[in-house]
């Protein structure tokens, strides 16, 4: 027994004298850097407010503070198991965009990917994305938590270009995917690009076979996404700076709505007036009447509605609005009744027809001295 005790003591002493084992360095993600010629980018607080409200306008101090971000993920859902295996970050440097793409080759590189992304975004004031508010940033925030990292850059102010693009182009384009906007707004349709829906499958295949070639195609797809966001931002800012220079009436009218929402009512009015003789005549006419009514410009509104009524054919909006004005503002019950009966004769859906019949009875009572 004493022999065994002495032997165990010798083994313990020998282990204490051994040099401690060297720990392996943590896994590192891969990095790809590209410099892209972008051209002049006119940025202003007013323009960013038009696109992103107070959050974007107050965060902006200089172009250096903008960071364009787009991720490629292992899935298209927002579940906890979805991981960003690639993050593309574009920063402005004069007339160029400096693009850094971080990508992992296995899941153990995720922590390094997130730490390097945070490093790339040092000094950023405003994150610019396309649908990033709904997908990219919430996913990255969840992955930071899972890796026991502070939320960091995921809490920065955001400008999601999808919302601005929809406000300006959805009336004409109906759907506003980035590829659709590239084709119809930027005039640069994609050729031979990987559809985004296939990218999670490409990542899964890479984990099995280790073939990097398809991953390089994903990086090219991501590069195009990030660069297109900068080009789209420039187009959106130009649209608010000179809205009537746009080619399509629908876009000019939509710019008017966005300008009105941003409090730039005078510019919105010019957009609506510019498109009164175009395909958006009725939409623009309604919007122009709304501005006149809110600003108390009664005589201008009457003249406008009369012109709209003469040109609108079966459109009842102008007749109904004029009937309201003649009844409540001008106390011209006869004119109000004539317009109400004209509107009824053209047919209206249930609730509107009931309102018109109620107005008709009220006007007849007043004309007959019933008050």
Structure report:
A six-stranded mixed β-sheet has the order 1-4-3-2-5-6. Strand 5, helix 4 (132-146) and strand 6 (158-160) form a beta-alpha-beta unit. The mean pLDDT is 91. With 371 residues, it is of the alpha/beta class. It is elongated, with a radius of gyration of 31 Å. It has two domains: 30-241, Nucleotidyltransferase, domain 5 (2-Layer Sandwich), CATH 3.30.420.10; 244-367, Serine Threonine Protein Phosphatase 5, Tetratricopeptide repeat (Alpha Horseshoe). It starts with a helix and ends with a helix. The chain has helices spanning 2-17, 45-59, 110-120, 132-146, 161-173, 178-184, 199-209, 213-241, 249-261, 265-274, 281-294, 298-312, 317-328, 333-345, 350-367, and strands spanning 30-37, 66-73, 84-93, 96-103, 126-129, 158-160.
The CATH class of the largest domain turns out to be Alpha Beta
Our count of domains comes out at 2
Rg of Cα set: 31 Å
- Enumerate the spans where pLDDT stays under 50 for 5 or more consecutive residues: none
Oligomer: single chain
CATH fold-level name of the largest domain: Nucleotidyltransferase, domain 5
Order of helices and strands: HEHEEEHEHEHHHHHHHHHHH
By CATH, the superfamily of the largest domain comes out as: Ribonuclease H-like superfamily/Ribonuclease H
Distance between the amino and carboxyl termini: 119 Å
Biggest sheet: strands side by side, in what order?
A: 1-4-3-2-5-6
Q: Structural class of the helix and strand makeup?
A: alpha/beta
